[in-house]
TrEMBL record:
GO terms for cellular component: nuclear RNA-directed RNA polymerase complex. Its EC number is 2.7.7.48. Probably involved in the RNA silencing pathway and required for the generation of small interfering RNAs (siRNAs). The keyword Protein biosynthesis does not apply. It comes from the Eukaryota. Belongs to the RdRP family. GO terms for biological process: siRNA processing. Residues 628-710 form the RDRP C-terminal head domain. It comes from Gossypium barbadense (Sea Island cotton). It catalyses: RNA(n) + a ribonucleoside 5'-triphosphate = RNA(n+1) + diphosphate. This is RNA-dependent RNA polymerase. InterPro entries: RDRP, RDRP_C_head, RDRP_core. Residues 42-587 form the RDRP core domain. Keywords: Nucleotidyltransferase, RNA-binding, RNA-directed RNA polymerase, RNA-mediated gene silencing, Transferase.
Length: 731
């Protein structure tokens, strides 16, 4: 495991120096972080202002001679914001995972327009708490010529199936050049919607841009709601770094699944348990196809290739039969990983999509209508629409999708989005968990059964319970005071993080689970539960925005439960009989029913080798087992995996004379014979122990040689192919 040690000295205003030793290493990913309450989402980035290194030879750096405040102004005039919470939230936009759009912005036609107001039945603007309610929150326009410069299929700053990620303007400052995929196939039709971070002459803009064929060339038109930082007109001595950054584009929807929250809300709305159980059974039956269908098996092996460095995929592509003992063992492990999603309610569903949302530029749609553009153009009919992570009973809407001819004049042949109306007293996105159009994705389903069963509830209305704390404007601090305030905020966030959002969500789940199983709808218990759910919903939505508002959200004791449904896998639990409990139990039982695979050798590898060769690897295999027992002495899975891989490398070197078969330093005939010896020794030991996992040494050490032998035995040659291409073909 690679480890980087960084020493960082921080000098405080009172003269004290803090020396921080930072160790950076590959962690266990999201699952490990969820279990470790001491972890924090806070990241440290080190930015160079000056350099005395000989390699730089005194060259002036872009931040040379600037104060920290002046350096921040290179990106945006963040000091103009009204609070410290917004200061930190908005400046972090430069760290978004983005792809820089390579274009000279010096002759850009940049416009800031007003938002589309919500209007009541008398056509008067609607206000809430003195603030104008709007339909166009977070979305603007981009001219077609500029949109064509943007690659399609961008997700979180990289082109799906192969592009590199650039950390926005930080990457640009460091001189990195993004892979923008100039291929013509990515240029013919522009992305319909582009989620962006835009830094321009002190502005910081966040939101989505809809391609608009009506705009003049080289035009970007943003709404007031998209402008997160405005320029300081008095600041003229700082040269800003203008940069248009692409986060995500509106992409072709992949296979869509339900979620835990959505299942609970659908269940509350009248969708019966057997509907979800049928979806689950279909998913489990389909997953079993990986043991008999090569296409299904390869898709699973590619998607879960990180578990075994694509070994299972290589075996399948080399013609190893799907009933081979070790291959079936690896497929079982991968399928169990896939089924973990099923445990938490991620049930695949047909006729459903995740689409990026925006507002109808034509103004044609009525308040209960949407326009949806998919592969074959616009669709019509009733649709169910939901925005994650909605937890309110009314966060699911039933709307009418209709054809809007006028849209063609704006977007042409661009695809994949849902357009919401610009008419009515309230934005439909806001009705769904307080959503907007700055990149929010919406679950859209035209599944006929779902539409037939579900009955809508009144939409959520905001009910603030947490007051905003007092906060000085950043401009009111001196430079030294501002740095001290920011550092103090960093320490609080890192070492005293708020768990209000997770706590509200967990308690909502626990109470909602019980709420769904109480049969007497008029009982006082159910009435109390519904009131507590509403309070938790308000707290949860406040906690979602707490980093921007600066609110200190607290979940009171009376809203906290003592026990949780067993499927949440917490220490204090009860046996849930809700639909989520049934799904969890069914998947668990299904996994336990999978029979153990008998270990058998492939006939093509079950051959005699010389006694000398067999004796050599019998001794080495015994030594390996001793070594592996020694290295697997840590409770940390990542450390154990790294140690095991290092041990495999030792024995690869013995077999190949190099790190891999392609780097071999030994004759191929010797390598082939010894690979067969390893295979037979391992499999015989696995048969003796009745443990197919013991076959792993053969494939992890001699796998390349064994696959080469198998392909030669078929009378064929191997074909090189990038894993990303295979994933694209079989996704």
């Amino acid at each position: 495991m690679k480890e980087l040690v960084v020493y960082c000295a921080i000098i405080l205003p009172d003269g004290f120096t803090i020396l921080i030793l930072v160790k950076l290493f590959k962690d266990g990913g999201k699952e490990a972080k969820k279990k470790d309450r001491s972890t924090s989402p806070v990241k440290c980035f080190f930015v160079r202002f000056e350099s005395n290194a000989a390699i730089d030879d005194g060259k002036e750096y872009v931040l040379s001679g600037k104060t920290v405040q002046e350096a921040r102004s290179v990106f945006m005039h963040v000091h103009t914001l009204p609070s410290m919470a917004k200061y930190m939230a908005r400046f972090s936009l430069i760290l978004s995972k983005t792809m820089k759009l390579e274009d000279d912005l010096s002759n850009l036609n940049f416009m800031v327009e007003g938002d589309i107001p919500c209007k009541d039945k008398d056509k008067k603007p609607v206000y809430k708490d003195g603030k104008l309610c709007i339909h166009s929150d977070g979305t603007g326009y981009i001219s077609e010529d500029l949109a064509l410069k943007c690659p399609k299929d961008v997700f979180k700053g990289s082109i799906m199936n192969g592009a590199n990620v650039e950390i926005g303007p930080i990457g640009a400052l460091l001189g990195e050049s993004p892979d923008t995929m100039q291929a013509d196939s990515y240029r013919r039709v522009p992305p319909l919607l582009i989620q962006i971070r835009f830094f321009y002459k002190g502005y910081a803009v966040k939101g989505t841009l809809l391609v608009n064929k009506k705009l003049p060339p080289r035009t970007i038109q943003v709404r007031d709601s998209m402008v997160k930082v405005e320029p300081d007109l008095n600041l003229s001595n700082i040269c800003t770094r203008n940069s248009l950054e692409v986060v995500t584009t509106s992409n072709q929807p992949k296979r869509t699944s339900l979620s835990k929250n959505l299942i609970m809300l659908l269940s509350y709305g009248g969708v019966p348990d057997n509907f979800f159980m049928d979806l689950l059974k279909n998913a489990l039956e389909e997953s079993q196809g990986a043991f008999s269908n090569k296409r299904t098996a390869l898709r699973v092996a590619l998607n879960r290739g990180g578990l075994d460095e694509l070994l299972a995929a290589k075996m399948i592509l080399s013609g190893i039969p799907l009933d081979e003992s070790y291959l079936q063992y690896r497929m079982s492990i991968m399928l169990n990983e896939d089924r973990k999603g099923l445990l938490s309610g991620k049930l695949p569903i047909t006729d459903s999509y995740h689409l990026m949302g925006t507002v109808d530029p034509s103004g044609v749609l009525e308040s209960d209508e949407v326009c949806i553009i998919l592969d074959n153009g616009q669709i019509s009919g009733k649709v169910l629409v939901y925005r994650h992570p909605g937890v309110h009973f009314g966060d699911i809407h039933i709307l009418t999708a209709r054809y809007v001819k006028e849209l063609d004049e704006y977007v042409g042949h661009a695809k994949y989005a849902i357009f919401f109306p610009s008419n009515g007293p309230r934005s439909l996105a806001d009705e769904m968990a307080g959503g907007d159009f700055d990149g929010d994705m919406f679950f859209v389903s035209k599944n006929p059964q779902l539409l037939d069963y579900f009955k809508v509830s009144e939409p959520w209305t905001e009910n603030c319970t947490t007051p905003e704390g007092p906060s000085r404007r950043p401009s009111e601090f001196s430079d030294e005071e501002l740095e001290s305030e920011l550092f103090e905020s960093f320490l609080k966030t890192r070492f005293q993080p708020s768990y209000a959002m997770g706590m509200a969500a967990d308690n909502w789940s626990a109470i909602m689970d019980r709420f769904l199983t109480v049969e007497d709808s008029n009982s006082s218990e159910k009435t109390l539960m519904k009131e507590n759910l509403k309070k938790l919903i308000d707290l949860y939505y406040e906690a979602l925005d707490a980093s921007k508002t600066g609110k200190k959200v607290i979940v009171p004791e009376e809203l906290r439960v003592a026990v949780f449904p067993h499927y949440m896998e917490q220490e204090n639990s009860f046996k849930s009989t809700s639909i989520l409990g049934k799904i969890y139990d069914h998947v668990k039982a299904y996994q336990e029913e999978v029979s153990r695979k008998e270990v058998q050798k492939l006939p093509c590898f079950n051959v005699e080798v010389s006694e000398e060769c067999r004796s050599k690897w019998t001794v080495l295999y015994e030594q390996y087992r001793k070594d592996m027992t020694y290295v697997l002495n840590s409770s940390n899975k990542e450390k154990n995996d790294a140690a095991a891989n290092a041990l495999y490398d030792v024995y690869k070197k013995v077999l190949y004379g190099g790190a891999e078969l392609v780097e071999r330093q030994r004759p191929m005939n010797q390598i082939s014979e010894e690979a067969l010896a390893i295979y037979n020794i391992c499999y015989e030991y696995a048969i003796k122990k009745d443990d197919v996992g013991k076959c792993g040494f053969a494939w992890k050490v001699a796998g390349s040689a064994l696959l080469n032998l198998h392909v030669l035995g078929l009378g064929e040659k191997t074909l090189s192919c990038a894993p990303s291409v295979l994933k694209e073909l079989f996704s």
